[in-house]
Design brief:
- It is a single chain.
- The chain is an alpha+beta fold and 75 residues long.
- The protein has a single domain, classed as Translation Initiation Factor IF3 (2-Layer Sandwich), CATH 3.30.110.
- The protein is built from 2 helices and 4 strands.
- The model has no long low-confidence stretch (mean pLDDT 96).
- Belongs to the sulfur carrier protein TusA family.
- This is UPF0033 domain-containing protein.
- It comes from Virgibacillus profundi.
């Protein structure tokens, strides 16, 4: 998987991770991939809903040392 941009949203509380994700995804071309690192536990459900409503694809997610990592393909 080719990562086109990495967003560091660690330490940010709702709604900032989604606000920064929206800004970052707007800078990408369709089909490009954004990798996001966050620590807000509520971000997973927020991101899932936001990606679906925006027509983006959540490719995968994992947790590593309390850091949530997500990969989204721009729709």
């Amino acid at each position: 998987m080719t990562i086109n941009k990495v967003l560091d949203a660690k330490g940010l509380a709702c709604p900032m991770p989604i606000v920064k994700t929206k800004k970052a995804i707007n800078e990408l071309e369709s089909e490009q991939v954004l990798e996001i690192h966050a620590t807000d536990k509520g971000f997973k459900s927020d991101l899932t809903a936001w990606a679906k409503s925006g027509g983006h694809e959540l490719l995968k997610h994992e947790e590593e040392n309390d850091v949530l990592k997500f990969w989204i393909k721009k729709g």
